Amino acid sequence: MIIQHNLLAMNAQRQFQLSDTKKSKSSEKLSSGYRINRSADDAAGLAISEKMRRQIRGLNQASANIMDGVGYVQTGEGALNEVDDMLHRMTELAVQASNDTNTDQDREYIDMEIQQIKSEMSRVFETTSFNERLIWQPDPDKLVQVGTEKKYTVTFKNTHIGYDVTDSNKGFIPYNGIKLAADEEGIKASWKAYDGNTYETSKVDWDTVVAGGYSFKLEDYMPDSVKDGSGNPPFTFTVGFTPNSYATRDDIIAAINQSSISTSTNAYYELRFEDSSGNKVTHPAMTLTEARAASFAASYVSAANGGHTFDAPDDAFIEPSPSPNLVTYPSSITASDAREDGTSWTFKFNMQGIGGVTANCVNVKYYSYDHADDDLGYWWDWRPGYIWVGNERVYEPHYQEYQISRNLGNTLKDVMKGLTGEKGDDPFPGLLNSDNGGDSDSGGMITFEFRADADSAFSSGSASGKDGIFTFQLWLEVGRDDTEQSVLDKINSVLNADTRLDVYIGHSSNNEGAYIGTPTSSHKIDTPVYDYDQYEKHILIQAGSDKGQYIDIHYKILNMDMLGLLDTNALTQEDSENAIEEVKHALHTVNEERAVFGAYQNRLEHAYNANKNTEENTQAAESLIRDTDMAAEMVSFSTANILAQFGESMITQANQTPNGVLSLLQ
After folding, report:
1. Backbone φ, ψ for residue 556 (5° rounding)
2. For the segment 167-207, what is each residue's pLDDT rounded down to a tens digit?
3. What's this model's pTM, rounded to 2 decimal places?
4. Which of 55, 158, 439, 588 has a Cα at 20 to 30 A from 573?
5. Are 584 and 21 in contact (CB under 8 A)?
6. CA 478/CA 157 separation, integer angstroms
7. In terms of Cα–Cα distance, which of 270, 299, 268, 298 is closest to 502?
8. Which residue, among 410, 657, 509, 482, has the nearest Cα to 169 in the 3D structure?
């Protein structure tokens, strides 16, 4: 007999705890109705059940989505039903107006109703909506992209003109573009001219613009103040554009207001070497190109009044300053020194209204008249026609390799490098023949490129700027008999301390011209589509519980243009007959779309039924995994409950066993 360890009671207590735990779990299942209340109850079963629950809840919401889709197509079809009735009424009116017993006044009355019907149909297409989604308005996120790029809202027609500058028009020429301005009433153009004034056309109303195929002539709307004594405008230009089919009038107005017509004026000038008296000097060793002014206005700035004159005398605007005006140049007289001479060439000019102008040699370019062989690794290509030999085009009746060319630098040593060639990693043949240190059998050309920049930023009248006022080139011919020394002597004979280079107008004023280019627009429509007939609106109905399980409701976007009724009227017998056919076509289009909506409604209803069936079956399967079998669980609970009661009784009896030890003390 022991009293320290009551093993009977401990065993009874352990068994009681097991029974009580089973009773507790069984009670939990009976009270919740679920067999699985936590992952420990059935880890795999819980995972499968939760996956099914996600599908069930998704299917339930998808069914609601489908019914929303049904409401969407029913709304559209209902609106089209009313449009159908209106088209039938238009048919009656068109047939009535086609009867030649009607007077013009009668047809006007009939047409009044037709136009009101058209307006109401247009309003239906523009305003019919479901849940604030407009049914027949383009949706940038849903429209099908037929092409590869977004289209401009307005595509301007490719138009550009050039015209002569004359005494009668020189003051009215636009110098910084023509600005287009549009509003709900129409379009007008304005420009600032060389005379300092701003001019504008009268407004062209939209009816006129549309009737002209979205085009109009600026000269028809110019004020009389810009025309000459015979009523001729200073210039002519037709503005023409094609709106995107989906662009609204507001879109078109916005695009035009972001557009401008480019304009420019130009004149060509000649360069010449002069002696100290200003007379032209010819140097056979070196040829000058024409110089083109980058800014027409800058070339004609007058220091006297800050205005612009297109008829400046030959030496009115650019003069050598100082004279002679080659202020920086290499001084090497031997070929060996020239190979190491890093000096470049600089001319100084004075330009009225601008001040000092410096023309620096910015590049020395090399052209070889030879053609590279395949195995030399030089770049070459085939081309038909001619090659340049000096200033002449030499035509040959066969294909020939392209001339080799390189940019060398801008110094004397770079010129010398072009004579003997480069033998390093990027080799090219020298212009001299092989006996004189090069690789050429034909010689070539050395080109000195100059850019003239203002010494300081200027602003005079409408002209302003600093760099690139004009550019020019000097060409040096290298013959097959030349040597390094002979080429150096040619350069030194022309470009030295006595060199005077002048820029002057070499052409008559008739060759001075102005240019007007095609307007541009940076305003693009958001809908990336091309063909109007291919436009379809897409409404994606999420009809399943997983990604990609949607029903794509797509249909054509209807409007009066799509129906072909924009210009329908009954004002004449011929118009009325045409209206009959136009309404017939519109009825076909509308009923085709009604059929599309009806087909989608039937499909959606079938999809709804299928979803509900799938949801029900999935719920049944999930119930088998998750729900408690109440009858079976009640048996388990009763067993656990009885065992728990017996366990309590056994613990009580086991606790009485140590009391038997007390009898030994009596």
Report:
1. -75, 145
2. 677 778 886 788 999 999 999 999 988 777 899 999 999 99
3. 0.41
4. 588
5. no
6. 48
7. 270
8. 509
